[in-house]
Design goal:
Rossmann fold; homodimer; 13 helices; alpha/beta
C-alpha cells in the first residue's frame, strides 16, 4: 500500500511505538506534566500558581508564555473560593464554553451545571444591538452579563474590547468580579486591556502581551478546578 | 468610585479611547490584519498560503509560529476544492466544532450544515471503548470517523495520538483525506505525529513542533473559507 497511498520512506507507522507501550488519556496528561516540570526554566511561582502556569504551558505547547503570566496577589485563592461556591462563570467565546469540562467544574462544586456558564456572544439581541451601533458584539455580550459579573468569574480569551468594557464597568459601575481571567489575544487594544485590569483592585490572572486565546482561558479554569478539588 | 472599586491611579477607563474612534468587529479584524502585514518579517509564502498564515498569526498573537508552518505543495488548492465541494470535516475537539463558523463554511459551499462537521470525542461508545482498552478516547474517535475521512477534511488541534492513528490509517488502510490540518499541541508524541504526516503523500498544513491548538485549527479552516469564497 505504501507506494500508492503514501509512505514515501516505507517506515512502519509511528503509532506502533505507542501501542507497544500504551497509555490512557490521563496517563499521557501526567506524563506531559512530568515533561513540563522537568524542562521548565527556573521561576518564582508559588506551588498553587505553578499548577495554573503548567497547565497553560501544557495547553500552549510553549514555555515562553511563562514570562508573561501575572497573578494579582489574591488571584488563586479568590478563584478557588469562587469555584467552590459554584459562582457563575462568564465567558467571551463559544469555544471557551465548549471547552470547559462540566466534570472538572463539578469536582470543585457539585452545583455546577451547563446553566452556570454564561456566553452571550451569539445571542440575537447582542448581534442586533451591535449591528445598530456598529460596535463589536463582545461589548454588548459583556454588558448583558452585568447581573452575574459581581461575585462571578469573568473569562476573556478572545476579544480585548470586551475586557476593556468590563474594566470600565469595574471602575465606573461598581462591578466586582471574584476573579478575572484576562487572556484575550490579538493586535488591537489587547495589551492596553491587560495592563488596565492589572492596575485595578480586582483578583486577576493575566497573560501580558499579544498572546492568549480560548484554549488558554479554559486551561486556567481547569487548573483552578484541580486546586479547588484538592 | 475609584478608591472603593478599583482604579489605583484615577485614570479614565481606556475604552473611552476606543469609543472616541469606534470600530465594528469586521473593522477591527481588518485593522489587525493590516498590523500583521506591516509587522511580519520577510517570508516566502505565496499569496494564498499567506492568507492562511496571517490568520494563524492573528489567532495566536504571535509571529514566531511563522517559521514552523509547513504546507504540502498542493495543500491550499486541495483544501479550497474540498470546501467548495462541501466535503465533510472531521475535528478532534468540541472546541473546534464550536469555533467553526457555519457562515464562513457556507461562504465556501451553501450545502454546509452543522451535520457536516463530525466530532466523536464525547460520544458514549468512544468513551466506553477507550475505557475498556485503557487508551485515549481520541484514537477511537478518529477510527469511528473512518467512513468520512477519505475525501474529507481532517482537523487535529488537540490530540497527537489521534493524528498518529490517522497516519496509520493512511499508510495501512488506504484512507485518503482531501486535506489534513495537523496542529495538535503538547509534549508527548506531538512532533512525531507532525513529521509523519509531512512524510506522507497527503495534502497537509502543519505547525511543526510542540505548539498548536483548537483555535489555530479553526483559523486554518476559516482562512481556507476566505480563499474558497474569493
Amino acid at each position: 500500500m505504501g507506494d500508492k497511498n503514501g509512505l514515501k520512506g516505507g517506515r512502519s507507522p509511528f503509532i506502533y511505538n505507542f501501542y507497544a507501550l500504551p497509555r490512557s488519556g490521563p496517563q499521557i496528561e501526567a506524563w506531559s506534566f512530568d515533561v513540563i516540570d522537568r524542562e521548565a526554566p527556573p521561576h518564582s511561582f508559588g506551588p498553587d500558581e505553578w499548577e495554573v502556569v503548567r497547565r497553560m504551558i501544557h495547553t500552549a505547547g510553549d514555555f515562553t508564555i511563562m514570562k508573561d503570566i501575572r497573578f494579582s496577589a489574591d488571584a488563586v485563592p479568590a478563584g478557588v473560593k469562587a469555584l467552590r461556591a459554584g459562582r457563575p462563570i462568564y465567558v467571551d467565546s463559544s469555544m471557551i464554553r465548549a471547552g470547559l469540562s462540566l466534570a472538572r467544574l463539578r469536582s470543585a462544586c457539585v452545583r455546577y451545571s451547563p446553566q452556570s456558564v454564561f456566553c452571550h456572544i451569539a445571542d440575537e439581541d447582542v448581534a442586533r444591538d451591535a449591528g445598530e451601533a456598529e460596535l463589536p458584539r463582545s461589548i454588548f455580550a459583556v454588558r448583558k452579563a452585568k447581573p452575574i459579573l459581581t461575585g462571578g468569574i469573568a473569562v476573556f480569551g478572545n476579544a480585548p474590547v470586551a475586557l476593556l468594557e468590563l474594566n470600565r464597568m469595574i471602575i465606573e459601575d461598581g462591578v466586582q468580579p471574584a476573579l478575572v481571567v484576562a487572556v484575550p489575544v490579538g493586535f488591537v487594544h489587547v495589551e492596553e486591556s491587560k495592563e488596565e485590569i492589572l492596575s485595578l483592585d480586582v483578583p486577576c490572572i493575566v497573560l501580558r502581551g499579544r498572546r492568549g486565546g480560548s484554549t488558554l482561558a479554559v486551561s486556567v479554569i481547569h487548573a483552578l478546578c484541580t486546586l479547588s478539588a484538592g
